[in-house]
């Protein structure tokens, strides 16, 4: 499903340069779930952003199926992200003037879906995360956990091949964090989508079948963990 090789990324130049990724290679199979952990500044989020085409790599290759992410220009990347990828971040990135349902519809409409179909899929996704009753609510009326569940619904409504989650529980208490993790696992079972999760919480990482640990821009450990 996802293959990356020799990924490098440097921020800054000269004495101020920081090598965020150092010839990183990674392969994820269809439906696989993996957590990326490591200390702050080790390259976890950079790796996820580069794999998802949100930031360009300085070198290396990225493939999602037979699609070469590293060869795409921005307009092509945007179309590829809408078609095959979903993203969940620590900050929910919900549009404050739109309802929960309208927020979920946004990427579907951007991908060219009809409004009627987008409405149907948005409601289906909100039902899956347990928020159909909040479909008309704006983000200001939602709790942090509810807002993150709307963000998950938005990310999976189009049934992407791979879901990238960058510290999705970082702003939540432990109970809400467990609920969000349960939903991410449910999406994997329900839709068979590949999940790559970046987290600083080793307890949550242990819930996934594979743990990848980074240090100083490199993958230093890649092992099987819990079974789901």
Structure description:
There is one protein chain. The chain is 35% helix and 27% strand. It has a 6-stranded mixed sheet, with helices on both faces. It has a 4-stranded antiparallel sheet with strand order 2-1-4-5, covered by helices on one side. The chain is α/β, with parallel strands linked by helices. The chain has helices at 44-51, 74-84, 100-110, 115-128, 144-156, 174-191, 202-205, and strands at 2-11, 18-28, 33-37, 59-64, 67-68, 85-89, 162-166, 194-198, 210-215, 218-224. The model has no long low-confidence stretch (mean pLDDT 92). Helix 4 (115-128) crosses helix 5 (144-156) and helix 5 (144-156) runs parallel beside helix 6 (174-191). The protein has 7 helices and 10 strands.
Instruction: Point out poorly predicted stretches.
Output: none
Strand content: 25-35%
CATH top level class name = Alpha Beta
Number of helices: 7
CATH topology: Rossmann fold
What is the residue-mean pLDDT, rounded to a whole number?
92
Residues in helices, as a percent range: 25-40%
Q: Any idea what the radius of gyration is? A: 17 Å
- Largest sheet entry: 6 strands, mixed
Main sheet strand line-up = 6-7-8-3-9-10
Corresponding CATH superfamily: P-loop containing nucleotide triphosphate hydrolases
Number of strand elements: 10
Order of helices and strands: EEEHEEHEHHHEHEHEE
Global structural class: alpha/beta
* CATH-scheme architecture: 3-Layer(aba) Sandwich
Shape: globular
For the termini, the CA-CA separation is 20 Å
């Amino acid at each position: 499903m996802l293959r990356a090789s020799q990924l490098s990324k440097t921020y800054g130049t000269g004495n101020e340069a920081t090598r965020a990724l150092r010839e990183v290679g990674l392969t994820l199979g269809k439906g696989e779930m993996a957590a990326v952990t490591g200390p702050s500044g080790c390259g976890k989020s950079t790796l996820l952003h580069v794999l998802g085409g949100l930031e360009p790599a300085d070198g290396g290759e990225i493939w999602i199926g037979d699609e070469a992410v590293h060869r795409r220009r921005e307009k092509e990347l945007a179309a590829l992200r809408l078609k095959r990828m979903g993203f969940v971040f620590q900050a929910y990135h919900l549009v404050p003037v739109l309802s929960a349902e309208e927020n979920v519809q946004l990427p579907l409409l951007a991908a060219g879906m009809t409004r009627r179909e987008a409405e149907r899929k948005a409601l289906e996704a909100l039902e899956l995360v347990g928020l159909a009753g909040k479909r008309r609510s704006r983000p200001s009326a939602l709790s942090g956990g509810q807002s993150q569940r709307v963000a998950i619904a938005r990310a999976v409504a189009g049934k992407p091949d791979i879901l990238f989650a960058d510290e999705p529980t970082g702003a939540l208490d432990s109970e809400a964090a467990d609920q969000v993790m349960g939903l991410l696992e449910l999406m994997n079972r329900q839709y068979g989508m590949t999940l790559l999760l970046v987290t600083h919480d080793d307890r949550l990482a242990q819930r996934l079948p594979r743990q990848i640990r980074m240090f100083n821009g490199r993958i230093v450990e890649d092992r099987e963990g819990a079974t789901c």
